[in-house]
Amino acid sequence: MRWRAADVITGLRVICGALLVVRPALSILMVGVASDWLDGPLARRAAASSYGARFDLEADSLLTLGAGIAAVRRGAPRIVLLAPVARYAIAAMRPHLDRDETRWDRITGVAQMAVLAGAIARWPTVPPAALVVSAARTAALAARIAPRGRLDLTAQPAEPR
Hints:
Layout: H1 5-22, H2 26-45, H3 52-73, H4 82-93, H5 99-120, H6 126-142
Helix pairs in contact: 1-2, 1-3, 2-3, 3-4, 3-5, 4-6, 5-6
């Protein structure tokens, strides 16, 4: 197994996720987020490793879980842990996303990380936002296991025969 620069930067994100659990700090989270922005372009420019995409996904998830734990330790409601924990079960059931699902996954993921960063920084507006963003993120994850990746919240129950 040959490590590439992108893999080393991705590994930094794993370390940041673990560090956040024991030392909640916005600076650690920002290093982890910056590593996420850097490793993708680096991997596309050089020959990507065979495990790089999977390693990147797991590193993202570990950073988010670590940030969630750090946010709770800083006073955020425990609901912020729902999506990071649920991701492991849901991604195992349906690991691949179509283009529309990927877009919503990214939008809700960025919103989730912003709320977690705000909680770690102890911004006073975080608790109300945490519920809304956690619900949206969890809904985006749940849509991955619904038929064709769509949750139909408007469906009517079948009529009895």
